[in-house]
Amino acid sequence: PDTHTVRVFDLSLDTPVLIGVIGEFGELPSQFAHPVDVSFLSPSEDRPLRLAVVDRGNARIAIYALDWSPDESLRFRPKLASLVRTLNLLALPGERPHPVDPVAIVACPDDTLALVDANNGNLMRLNDRLRLLHETDLKSEDSERPNVWTSVTLTPDGEIAVLDSANGRLVRCIPDGTSELDLDPTLEHATDLVVRRQDMLVVDENLHAIVRCDPSGEVVEYIGRSGLGAGEFFKPAAILDLPDGRVLIVDRGNHRLQFFDTDWNLSVVDGPRLYIADAKRGGRATVNDTPPAAT
């Protein structure tokens, strides 16, 4: 977000390889103002790999086609992405109490997009041509605090799950409405999560840790702590469960990516030299049953 760009990495090797940079700061269709989330749409025989980008500052969604194949040699491609279409969310039909504020997006198996509108507390469903299909109200009348929507993901069963950080709550979208799951009250400020069959991995930027919860939302263990070393974080922002079993953490405050195996041993760290020197020596993230100190 800080450079108003989307950076695309190839993860086929142990170390991430930067293969393209999309966008720059501005208001034009191919420019961004604080992009905050991305999601890949599945390729097909007649469609290339596509990427949906949430451009929060310009209140719009952009879809790019990527000129990329896993069979090609790894190299930086200045023309990796071409803009397919954009949607100005402030020009959507219908009446809403507040301007649309897009904060998170996920591509669904049916080629639709689920977009979180933080200002109105809605989940928008759009098709891959960015036409609005319907909206779901995510708000709850018994919320103790104003909702702060930070992330959207898919469960293993294909349900859409949206994270309300302020109330420590996960809202699932089901066919006849929504269902809610209260997360452990020790969470301070959850920014992202991965829902797996056996557990949930929740990123907490105030605890500078990854919190592993059981399916009921209770904490099992706290992974990591504040710092610059291997398995240490400073205001981590996002998490991704990779197909090869590794877990990727976007350690935003330390300007780096950290990759861990299933036992939380650091396998790769990538970022500016100043921020990876301590972690390069390797090691395992600390795993505790008590929360680290919040800051």
3D architecture notes:
The protein has 295 residues and is mainly beta. It has one helix and 25 strands. The chain has a five-stranded antiparallel beta sheet with strand order 15-16-17-18-25, with no helix packed on it. A hairpin with a 5-residue loop joins strand 17 and strand 18 (219-223). The radius of gyration is 19 Å and the shape is globular.
Rough outline: globular
The assigned structural class equals mainly beta
Q: If strands are numbered along the chain, what order do they take across the biggest sheet? A: 15-16-17-18-25
Q: What gap, in angstroms, lies between the N and C termini?
A: 22 Å
| Biggest sheet record | 5 strands, antiparallel
Number of strands: 25
Q: Which regions contain 5 or more consecutive residues with pLDDT less than 50? A: none
How large is the count of helical segments? 1
Q: Describe the oligomeric state of these chains in a short phrase.
A: single chain
Calculate the mean pLDDT score and round it: 93
Order of helices and strands: EEEEEEEEEEEEEEEEEEEEEEEEHE
Strand percent estimate: 35-45%
- Rg, rounded, reads 19 Å
Helix content class: under 10%
Give a quick set of tags describing it.
295 residues; four-stranded antiparallel β-sheet; 1% helix; five-stranded antiparallel β-sheet; single chain; 25 strands; mainly beta
Brief rundown of the structure:
The chain has 295 residues and is an all-beta fold.
Provide the fold topology:
Layout (H helix, E strand, L loop, with lengths): L5 E5 L6 E6 L12 E7 L8 E6 L4 E7 L14 E8 L13 E6 L5 E5 L4 E5 L5 E6 L11 E6 L5 E5 L4 E6 L2 E6 L7 E6 L4 E5 L4 E5 L5 E5 L1 E2 L5 E2 L4 E4 L5 E5 L4 E5 L5 E5 L2 H4 L10 E2 L7
Parallel strand pairs: 19-20
Antiparallel strand pairs: 1-2, 3-4, 4-5, 5-6, 7-8, 8-9, 9-10, 11-12, 12-13, 13-14, 15-16, 16-17, 17-18, 18-25, 21-22, 22-23, 23-24
